[in-house]
Structure formats: structure tokens, C-alpha cells
């Protein structure tokens, strides 16, 4: 019917509602909770900050450039104002190309989902699904109705983003912290994916112990967390564990955490008072909270106590993943371990790296006896930025055979599973192949150390690791990035000792960090000099 055809044509002519709110996008916002210089779209910048800007580094912010019609955020500076101020405009931008996207109806492309990592266990399934000449993506739905795909609240976030307050049914998840002084403030919200640890002082009174909310477990678990912002789906906070601390500081883990222990006055003591809370939040890769747990430390407060110190901590873990300790975010932090791993044998292609036992690069750990055979297996983590040296002594007798001795020394120097790769950043993920730097291994031979022996063999006597790193990113907040790692094994020629003879040789390991960053170029250029002679009365009547 003509009415149906006209309605369909009108629906096609009408531009779909934007999926992305460009007013909230900011590609130059690099610093967390800090104002980036000349970044006019940075929400952390105030009017005072904008008045000091000289230009807008990103004047126009758009979404997908292939859309036929979309909103564009335009930023500029009004330098004639006193003080200068930022000008923000939201305009409609039309794509002049005839080949453009009118509606984004592929729902799976609207957010980034972490791909499943191939492993030896699921590799056959991937071959069956993707091994043919063609395969189907099998989307959940193909919705051609732009009105249905863009509800009125399309611009509202449907997932948590980094730094957003974790919402509860009444307000937000509280993480008490000191604000101006060391006293606790309950107005500090917990930010999504922001691991925090705080300590603060709380005023207490034993007589009013049972009426102080901050001393009760219910104060920290009675409000359910919203799975996603502004939703009706709730996630209850469960009690993971309860530890009771005595007046002398001794702690005891309770066998059951099902029963709430509320503060109460007993024999001039306030028992079951909350001394510490540790939240652990589990979320999906799309920013949805699915589990929340809290571990409590309860203690007793004496009558003479007027204030106590409380500690609070919160951590986040993605589901179906094992928490891996990071050494920086993103760049390495001086003093934290260098993360390392290896590519498993028989892996079909280099798509992922498995970490070693401790996910760290290690060297020989010196012992008090300085005996290499006793030090076998003792390892020390390589700490970023710290040059290290360690060693031991090996007593060689005529009864020792060459090949077993060489292998034993190699195990002492490199460990049982020497890694093949090092993470370039402190937060590199195992599935990000380009974030892992291969370790280059070299072998150097030295001269003979004995001339009185009949036959000879090569034994390793030292391992030298050189880590080259550079400053990466903004000059305001540079991040340490490892770009090259070289492990050099030095061997020496040792001849077979005569019967009854023995020799002691030193074995050494070392680590050296080298900064290969290029010096920052100045942002100004020297003014050219002009070699001219001015008239003698040029400055008259001034001298």
C-alpha cells in the first residue's frame, strides 16, 4: 500500500539518533583526574585552566566519519574575552560522500568485546568454525528500524566506564577517606576500575558504640550495587570473610561469615567494631558488575579510646580471568618487578603469551654460603630501574663430568624456565602480542682458565641482562616502556683436572637498565641575530 511505502521512505530520510555522544568524547584527555594542556574537551579542566590555553589541540570531535549524518563537537577559544574562555558548539555534520552509513544496525559492533584467546584445548573448535573458505558472524539481530534501535535514552551510558562512581540503590558505594584532615569522610565514592586503599581516623565513644553507623557492618553492605548505571538490576554485597582483632593486635579468622556481628557494649568494651573493609568487585568485559564481596576486620575498643584508625580498600577483577599483579599503568614504576613470560611449545601461532610461574624476570639469588650448587633454585626478581649483581662460587673437582656440570651452571644462571619475552609496559596483557618484547640471547666464549689439564669443555660462568627502556607518551607524564632486552651468557673453557686437584671459579649474574630516550626538543626557536649598525642618535633623547 502507498501509506506503508510512504512511511518507509520517511523513515529512511529521517536521520537516526546518534549512538555516540560526541560531547563526551575527548581524544586528548590523557591524564586521569588532571587537566591536559590545550585539551579543550577535557572535563577535568576548569574555567581558570581554559583561560591559560593558547589553542585547542583538537578543535573538532566527531564519531564515526563514515556516517551519513552525525553530531560534531566544535571547540575554540575566545581570546578577546577577559579572561579568555572556551567556546563549545554542537553542530550537525553531513557526509558529502554518497557511500555512507545511514544506520548502525549491527549491535555487536557498538562495543568492544574481548575476543576469545585460542588455546591448545579450543583450537579444534576454532578450526571447525573459521577454517573454511567462508564463515558467518551470526549476529544476534539485524534491526533495520532506526526508531526501535535508538530509544529516547540512547545517549545514556548502559555500562560502567573507568572512574565513574559505583552506584547503589540509594547513592553510591562509599569508600571513606581523609579529605582535609586525617578524619574520615564518608562522601568519597568508589570509582569503577580504580583500585584504592585509604586510611583515616574515626571519632568513637564506647557508650554510643551501637549507634555509630560507621562502626557497623550493615553500613557497608546494606545498599545493593547497580549492575549498570541507572538500571533496576541489583547486585548484593556478600560477606566474604570476617577477621576479629583483639586489643593486643592478634587477629583470628572466623570459620563462618554468615552471621552479622553488630557492635555492642560488653564489660566497658565496644566489640565487633569495624576496623577495616576490603571490597572486591567482579565485572564483565562490557562494564557490568556481576559480583560484589566485602571482607571485614572487626575489633574491640576500650573505654579510654577516643578515636580509631580505619582502613578501606577496593579492587576490581574481570570475570573468568586470574588477577595478575601489574608493575605500572601503563608504564613501569621504578622498584616493581619486570613482567615476563614465554610462548608455550606447540602453539599453532603466536597469538598469546603465557606467563611463567611468578610472571617475573629473575636472576640468581646470592646465599650466605656463596655455594652455587646450594643456590640452585633460589631466584630474585629483577626490579625495574635497579641495577643488580649477584654471584656464587663453584668448587670443581676431578670427579665432576663436563656436560652435567655445564647444565647445572646454566640452570643456576637462567633458572628452570628462563622467559622468552618481557612485557613492554607494566600493564601489558598476555593477549596483546605487540606489547611483548622478545629476549635476545647471546653466547660469548672466554679464554682458558687452566693450562694444566688434559681435555676441555665449555661451562657458563656469567649471565648479563641489559634492559633498554625509553620514556613514552606526554612530556608532562612520561611512561617507562621497555624496548629491548638482551641476555648474554659468557662461557669459559675448562680442562679436565688431574686426580686430587680442585679449583674454585666465580659465577656471576647482573642486570643493567639503560635509558635510551631521546632528549626533548625545545618548543621554541632562538631569534635570529641581526648584524647592523644603528644611527648614533637612534635612542635620543634616551641613553
UniProtKB/TrEMBL annotation:
Belongs to the tectonic family. GO terms for cellular component: MKS complex. Pfam families: DUF1619_N, TCTN_DUF1619. This is TECT1 protein. It comes from Pycnonotus jocosus. Part of the tectonic-like complex (also named B9 complex). Keywords: Cilium biogenesis/degradation, Glycoprotein, Signal. InterPro entries: TCTN1-3, TCTN1-3_dom, TCTN1-3_N. GO terms for biological process: cilium assembly; protein localization to ciliary transition zone. Residues 7-122 form the Tectonic-1-3 N-terminal domain. Residues 158-318, 328-513 form the Tectonic-1-3 domain.
Amino acid at each position: 500500500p502507498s501509506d506503508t511505502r510512504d512511511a518507509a521512505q520517511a523513515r529512511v530520510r529521517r536521520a537516526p539518533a546518534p549512538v555516540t555522544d560526541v560531547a563526551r568524547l575527548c581524544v586528548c584527555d590523557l591524564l586521569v583526574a588532571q587537566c591536559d594542556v590545550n585539551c579543550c574537551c577535557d572535563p577535568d579542566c576548569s574555567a581558570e585552566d581554559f583561560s591559560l590555553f593558547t589553542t585547542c589541540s583538537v578543535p573538532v570531535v566527531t564519531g564515526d566519519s563514515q556516517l551519513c549524518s552525525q553530531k560534531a563537537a566544535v571547540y575554540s577559544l575566545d581570546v578577546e574575552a577577559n579572561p579568555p574562555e572556551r567556546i563549545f558548539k554542537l553542530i550537525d555534520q553531513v557526509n558529502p560522500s554518497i557511500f555512507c552509513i545511514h544506520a548502525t544496525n549491527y549491535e555487536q559492533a557498538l562495543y568492544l568485546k574481548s575476543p576469545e584467546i585460542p588455546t591448545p584445548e579450543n583450537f579444534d573448535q576454532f578450526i571447525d568454525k573459521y577454517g573454511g573458505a567462508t564463515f558467518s558472524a551470526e549476529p544476534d539481530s539485524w534491526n533495520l528500524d532506526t526508531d526501535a534501535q535508538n530509544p529516547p535514552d540512547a545517549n545514556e551510558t548502559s555500562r560502567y566506564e573507568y572512574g565513574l562512581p559505583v552506584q547503589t540503590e540509594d547513592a553510591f558505594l562509599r569508600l571513606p577517606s581523609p579529605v582535609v584532615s586525617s578524619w574520615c569522610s564518608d562522601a568519597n565514592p568508589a570509582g569503577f576500575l580504580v583500585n584504592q586503599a585509604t586510611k583515616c581516623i574515626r571519632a568513637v565513644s564506647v557508650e554510643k558504640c551501637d549507634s555509630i553507623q560507621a562502626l557497623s557492618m550493615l553500613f557497608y553492605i546494606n545498599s545493593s550495587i547497580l549492575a549498570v548505571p541507572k538500571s533496576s538490576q541489583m547486585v548484593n554485597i556478600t560477606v566474604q570473610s570476617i577477621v576479629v582483632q583483639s586489643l593486643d593486635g592478634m587477629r583470628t579468622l572466623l570459620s563462618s561469615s554468615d552471621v552479622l556481628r553488630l557492635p555492642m557494649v560488653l564489660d566497658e568494651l565496644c566489640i565487633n567494631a569495624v576496623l577495616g573493609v576490603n571490597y572486591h568487585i567482579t565485572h564483565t568485559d562490557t562494564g557490568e558488575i556481576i559480583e560484589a564481596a566485602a571482607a571485614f576486620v572487626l575489633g574491640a575498643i576500650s573505654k579510654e579510646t577516643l578515636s580509631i584508625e580505619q582502613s578501606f580498600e577496593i579492587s576490581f577483577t574481570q570475570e573468568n580471568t586470574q588477577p595478575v599483579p601489574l608493575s605500572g599503568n601503563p608504564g613501569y614504576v621504578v622498584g616493581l618487578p619486570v613482567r615476563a613470560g614465554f610462548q608455550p611449545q606447540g602453539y599453532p601461532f603466536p597469538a598469546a603469551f603465557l606467563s611463567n610461574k611468578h610472571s617475573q624476570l629473575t636472576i640468581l639469588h646470592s646465599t650466605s654460603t656463596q655455594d652455587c650448587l646450594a643456590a640452585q633454585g633460589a631466584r630474585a626478581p629483577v626490579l625495574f630501574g635497579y641495577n643488580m649483581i649477584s654471584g656464587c662460587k663453584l668448587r670443581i673437582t676431578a670427579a665432576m663430568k663436563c656436560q652435567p656440570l655445564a647444565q647445572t651452571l646454566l640452570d643456576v644462571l637462567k633458572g628452570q624456565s628462563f622467559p622468552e619475552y618481557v612485557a613492554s609496559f607494566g600493564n601489558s596483557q598476555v593477549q596483546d602480542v605487540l606489547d611483548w618484547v622478545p629476549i635476545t640471547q647471546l653466547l660469548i666464549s672466554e679464554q682458558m682458565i687452566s693450562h694444566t689439564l688434559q681435555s676441555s669443555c665449555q661451562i657458563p660462568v656469567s649471565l648479563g641482562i641489559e634492559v633498554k627502556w625509553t620514556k613514552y607518551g606526554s612530556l608532562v607524564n612520561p611512561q617507562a616502556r621497555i624496548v629491548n632486552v638482551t641476555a648474554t651468557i659468557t662461557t669459559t673453557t675448562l680442562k679436565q683436572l688431574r686426580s686430587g686437584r680442585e679449583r674454585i671459579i666465580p659465577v656471576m649474574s647482573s642486570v643493567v637498565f639503560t635509558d635510551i630516550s631521546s632528549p626533548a626538543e625545545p618548543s621554541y626557536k632562538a631569534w635570529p641575530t641581526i648584524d647592523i649598525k644603528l644611527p648614533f642618535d637612534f635612542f635620543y633623547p634616551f641613553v
